[in-house]
Amino acid sequence: MIIERFGVVGCGLMGSGIAEVAARSGCDVKIVEANDGALQAGMERMEKSLDRAVRAEKISDDDRAQVMGNISFSTKLTSLADRQFVVEAVIEQEEAKIEVFRRLNDVVDDPEAIMASNTSSIPIMKLAMATNRPQQVIGVHFFNPVPVMGLVEIISSLLTGDKTAALCQEFASDQLGKRVVSSQDRAGFVVNALLIPYILSAIRMMESGFASAEDIDAGMVLGCNHPMGPLALCDLIGLDTTMAVAESLYEEFKEQLYAPPPLLSRMCDAGLLGRKNGRGFYRYN
After folding, report:
1. Is 44 one of the annotated active-site residues of the chain?
2. CB–CB of 230/198 below 8 Å?
3. Which of the residues 151, 213, 227, 253 has an alpha carbon 20 to 30 A from that of 233?
4. Which of 141, 157, 183, 248 is catalytic?
5. Distance (Å, rounded) from C-alpha 101 to C-alpha 115?
């Protein structure tokens, strides 16, 4: 089965990237946001991403025009009624995501349409039970920046149908060209269950005065050949997103290594969220 009609709920950093890669694959993409301002910001973000791809000679100007032509924008969730595959990419808060799935259940006409979440930590089962078709609900977790990163995690809940899982894997690998890894439905899935304790350990090390942010990151880049240090990576992910994933992991497993350090909490309270707003562990222009 070829996915032709694709929908995205949310046009932030992740939603716009997911929409871009789907449109690049030839899908007819509809994006829904809460208001016109958010839609405009998402459109500008996508245009800048495509401009970078043109400058890097990864796509042509004609390709860019075609990709934007494959995308339409709306503030009405009902515009997704005819979609074969819808990805939710709203804020990483359980209540917000559950509400999206509750509404999608009433909006999407095709009873076999796939309803997926790009959540990085929330159990898929909780989202699926907001619908009356949990066999069609699945986790499809992309990584930032979506057009560049080659991985997608596919997460089936206890009730996800085998057909749904197979179609998701085929879509991500064959149409989008991503490498797929499968995970059980546990908070954090594969990547974040490994990554978040590593980042939190770096934050605790800095918080205790053991080493500076620059030295911690240099140690992992130059000593372990990582492409980016853990604190710079936290800035890229977003401190609020890191915090949300850590809280979800701690709630599920009650392991101390998942508990958010006080410094992370205070920085989120202060609005120091990383690259997205210019200041986290480092300052950005």
Report:
1. no
2. yes
3. 253
4. 141
5. 8
Give the DSSP letter string of 126-165: HHHTTSS-GGGEEEEEE-SSTTT--EEEEE--TT--HHHH
Decide if 192 is catalytic: yes
Handedness of CA 193, 194, 198, 201 (dihedral sign): positive
Rounded-to-integer distance, Cα 266 and Cα 285, Å: 22
- Residue 128 is encoded by which pair of tokens? 């699926």
- Would residue 153 show up in a list of annotated catalytic residues for this protein? yes
pLDDT of the chain, 285 residues: tens digit per residue: 799 999 999 999 999 999 999 999 999 999 999 999 999 999 999 999 999 999 999 999 999 999 999 999 999 999 999 999 999 999 989 999 999 999 999 999 999 999 999 998 899 999 999 999 999 999 999 998 999 999 999 999 999 999 999 999 999 999 999 999 999 999 999 999 999 999 999 999 999 999 999 999 999 999 999 999 999 999 999 999 999 999 999 999 999 999 999 999 999 999 999 999 999 999 998
Q: In the beta sheet, which residues pair with residue 72?
A: 30
Domains belonging to the chain, first-starting first, are: 5-183 (3.40.50.720), 192-277 (1.10.1040.10)
Among 25, 70, 117, 192, the active-site one is 192
Annotated catalytic residue 120: yes
Marked catalytic residue, from 20, 33, 88, 153: 153
